[in-house]
UniProtKB/TrEMBL annotation:
Lineage: superkingdom: Bacteria
Name the UniProt record assigns to this protein: Lipoprotein
Region described as Disordered: spans on this chain: 308-327
Source lineage: Bacteria, Pseudomonadati, Pseudomonadota, Gammaproteobacteria, Alteromonadales
Amino acid sequence: MDLKHIFKLGALSTAMALAGCGGDININTGSEEVVTEIPTTTPTQSAQATAYSGFAERNTSLSVDGKEVWTLKGSLAPSTSASTIGSGDTGGQDADTIVLGNDVVWELDGAVIAGGDKESSVKLEVRAGTKIIGGSDSYLVVSRDSSIHAEGSQTQPIVFTSKESALGQPGEAGQWGGLVLLGNAPVNTCPDLTACDAAFEVGSHNYGGDDTEDSSGTLKYVRVEFGGFKINDTQEMNGISFAAVGSQTVVDHIQVHLNNDDGVEFWGGNVSISNVVLTENFDDSLDWTNGWQGSAQHVYIRQADNGSNRGIEADSSSDASATPQSQPAIANVTIEVANGENSGGDDAEGILFRKGTGAHAYNVLVKGDVNSGECLEINDDNTVVSTQDGALTMQNSLVDCVEPFKDAKVDAEEGRSLALDVEAWFLGQDGNLAAASDLNGYMPNSGSVALTSGAANLSNMDQRLTDAPYIGAFDGTNDWTEGWTTAIHGDAAPTPVALPVLTSCPVGTSAESVVSGVYKDDSINLVCTLEGNVTSNTTLLAGENVMYKIDGGAVVVGGDNTDSATLAIQAGTKLFATDNSYIAVSRGSKIMAKGSAEHPIEMTSEQDVIMGAEGSRGQWGGLVLLGNGLTNKCDDPMSCDVAFEVGDFPYGGNDNADSSGQISYVVVKYAGFKVNDTQEMNGISFAAVGSGTQVDHIQVHANGDDGVEFWGGAVNMKYVYLTENFDDSLDWTNGWQGKAQFVYITHEDGSANRGIEGDSHKGSGDTPVSKPVLSNVTILPGVDIENASGDKGEGILLRVATAASLNNVLVQGRKGSTSTTETGECLELDGTYADLVDNVTNNELTINHSVIDCNEPFKYSSDNAATADAVNVETWFLGQAGNSTAAVSITDGMPATTDTTLLGQGIDMSSDSFFESTDYIGAFDGTNDWRQGWTHSPK
């Protein structure tokens, strides 16, 4: 064979394969040159061009996510051409069906309108995983009799976003329009529903009719972000607008994020929505008017600080005779109300019912922050009438706010003649609560009242609702937002916001001059003093340059069950107190100290912040909460006025569910001044404080007396760090019946007494009996040498007739060979009062699944001859389930991940919803250190 000719053919074949556009190919074979003319051919049309060129145009100057961009503009109408719908992810058109495939990115150019108004109707399908982008004047409208079928999935949501965001630039509110659905359902702006042509507020598109069961299609797993362009002061686009949309429309798993007007808004209609996420929208997150009678269930609303107005704004019509009246069914809603006001001057608020709306709301949770506006407001006469005739109701709902309610008031200038006490209306209905919600972000903690107080059998109340017997959008376990939303999970987790620079002190405080160099923190140029009696709501604003001075003795919040006030303290706020000063929160008033892991609240002594001085025990008082709960110091709870041991402030009552507010992520240092040998201040004192108070993530460090002490009441606490306190770290008496989980106690050698000291009462038959329930406690007591008061380092003392249920407790003492190097007794029962022995005998005092690791593990004592040697503590302890005296190894409280003595040996207490599920002994699981980021580290 002639190899030269083989080469010629091979080269020619290669060249022809490389020649896509025709022309002459010159091939040099070495001995001769062959010139071959390649005929010019037309390029093969791409699958996308074939599918989409009939209704869209390719934007050749743009590529997004490595895909072609195809532009939609004007009206989308039926076609008489052959079907172009491709296989797989490729869409196309077949008659009146237009399919947007996810093989390309779709661009909206101006107003894109699917179908004509009741003519030239189309069915617009959007494949899962499709991205649709819009420019500054773009939006998508689905006309009456047309429909959209956008069905994404959890892993492939459909995303409507701005062109800027699609191109990798920052997404911001108002960069494009939004999604508008126009239906044929009733709206109360039309006197004659058979001839109804209401005009939409942008573009004058028509909507309305008499078909309650009309269908505009399906929206599932759809996200709309960065929309809401503004035309003028009254015309702005919502994220998703439902204008007279009927009940056969299916809407679930939708999110509207960072919209420049409302998140979703309804003008009449009967459409129902579920699994809805509305985040950081500028105006109202959920807005209805003009007769909406649909339903909404499982709705999560999170507002933006200084960037949102209302969570829900609900209207019907200014005309009381207009029908239909707005009356949706609302269930399982969580609203996180923001702080501040948006740039339009509107306060961040929770729910406003007005303009004669009705509604039946169940299982709604509204949580406000320290600088939020009102959380539940009712306004105008027609709406008051709705509350009177049963058209507007709320049941099994929870309001957890500094400013919970705002009343409807008589206002002649506004034409209002009816008043309504909103708090009384709310609390007078079944199952409603004004109390602490105990949330971790938007999820309720295992001990949250929200998990156990919801209305059951919702489907019997309204067939459109599903049974979800908990308050709020989440059941504490299942997070239905995962996988398809934005700015909630790790995809766009907000970084800690820097504290602002304040230029003046907030109302209720006074500024004092600051001399450079006085304070250890040289950024402080503003000190605001709080003193005297606080009788109006006061908020201490956080700032990087400000501290608050507690001065003049007792700063008392409110009067005793009169002149009630709330002291709100923003995350990141720093307070210091002069020598004899402290904060006392009166019965009926509240403190809302709501720090965060990134920005804890710190309360300390003046010496701790002044240059040249040092913080130490007893330099100021501490924090005192006075409640209306039960205490066995009162024979008659209905007339109870026990005097607190410092200041004689009264406490006690008959309400163990009372709320004194919230203390979260708060560190109290160097408090506990001494009045005399029997009167000393604790770091945080809970005097008959009720379970409606939320206490979590607290630290008391180097207090001059006890760390925390309880006198009766039923307040619960979780994530508690008690370090180097002088007397007892955790002390209870007089009938405390609360709960505690995750408590870590450490002592300073020679400057502490007991980790836990538990008492109840001395008189026979006194009630209630102290019976707290504790789980996951670690105690590292100090050595057995006396502190300045003559008390030695010990673990747990249970005495004075207390009962208790202790679970998953680790006490590890110092292990020296002498009293100066080892801990004293680690578990002691004192049977001087015989009721304690009875509690042991009757299993009212128990300890289970616990470890005592000490040289001197047990002790029994009694000053009563009748009860001498009544209990063998070691026998009692080892005879209960899961207990041992095993040696353990921990580092800074944490067991190794390979530990088998503590890990996996605990009892799960979560049958009580307060307790989180654990299977380990002690405060830590060996992996997660809940102290990180917010606590003070002892030296």
